[in-house]
Write a structure and sequence with these properties.
single chain, alpha+beta, 7 strands, 3 helices
């Protein structure tokens, strides 16, 4: 990831407004929802939620979050990686894989070694060591989504 830097929003609160706006534009979820979650990340000593961005020359080119539950019916499977996104022109450079590993490494330091995520992708996460475990219903969705699990190992 030459010229790219992964930033923990909790360590760089100056990026919070920009990150909330960026995630909102990528996922079409109200900016206020991201602002609120990022504010929680900044003011709590809790591990969840957490937000990360990838910068290239101070411009956000990718992002990822961790929340308790990514709006699915399996409330027992937590925490959840969410909002994984890499700008189109930066794809196929391993940035998503680096972000996933960075987040798993970060949570390992907090004593959390099992992470989950839901997606419609059918093979993307397997190449980064994620294991498909089941189908689950997400809020407001008619179709089931794929649930993946990752157990930390370096």
């Amino acid at each position: 990831m030459k010229n790219y830097k992964i930033i923990k929003i909790r360590e760089h609160p100056e990026f919070a407004p920009q990150a909330a706006d960026w995630f909102h534009k990528k996922w079409n979820i109200p900016k206020s929802a991201y602002s609120e979650s990022i504010s929680e990340c900044l003011k709590r000593n809790s591990d969840i939620p957490q937000w990360y961005i990838v910068l290239c020359k101070e411009k956000i080119i990718a992002g990822i979050g961790v929340i308790e539950n990514d709006f699915h019916e399996r409330k027992d499977l937590k925490p959840n990686i969410c909002a994984v996104y890499v700008e189109h022109i930066y794809r196929n450079h391993g940035i998503a894989g680096k972000m996933l590993q960075f987040v798993c490494d970060d949570f390992h330091t907090k004593g959390i070694d099992t992470m989950y995520l839901v997606t419609d992708h059918t093979s993307f996460y397997e190449k980064y060591g994620w294991e498909f475990i089941c189908m689950t219903k997400c809020n407001g969705e008619k179709e089931l989504s794929r649930m993946y699990k990752h157990i930390y190992h370096k």
